[in-house]
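Q: Rod shape-determining protein MreD, please. Structure only.
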Amino acid sequence: MNKQRVGLLWFAGSLAFALLSMLVPLPGALQPFKPYWPALFLLYWALEAGDQRVSLGLAFCIGLCADLLDGVLLGEQAMRLCALVFIALRFRSRLRFFPMWQQTLAVLALLLNDRVVLLIVRAFAGESLPPASWWISPFVGAALWPFLFLLMDDLRLRLRLQ
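A: Structure for Rod shape-determining protein MreD:
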């Protein structure tokens, strides 16, 4: 296989893994600690590949797939991921060169923004306010960000992909 095909498989495989890992069931007590995997993986690819691979259209398609897999309001996650990817691509040149601790704080801000967008969507859908434990997930995602970033970067460099 040539490097371009391996790179495309690695990209598509990581996004498919993110969608599938979103479906992993957790006990009720651990459910608030479940990170939003598609957002984390799309953030990684938005920062590393930029406009070459990640676009708002891709974020919308991944979000629609996540909506269908998760069984939530159609377009909910698509809109969330589009907002997240838009902000990440807009500030990509700054975020890429932040030290890891600052990048983690930026990811936390993006994930909290994602929760606010979700809260607005669900409020318009007529749902009640979520419990306070609902806000734990962005902090878990931000805590996992350095490990996910370093793991994905190491695997990408081992495959010698651009």
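A: Brief note, in case it's useful. The chain has one domain: 3-22+33-158.
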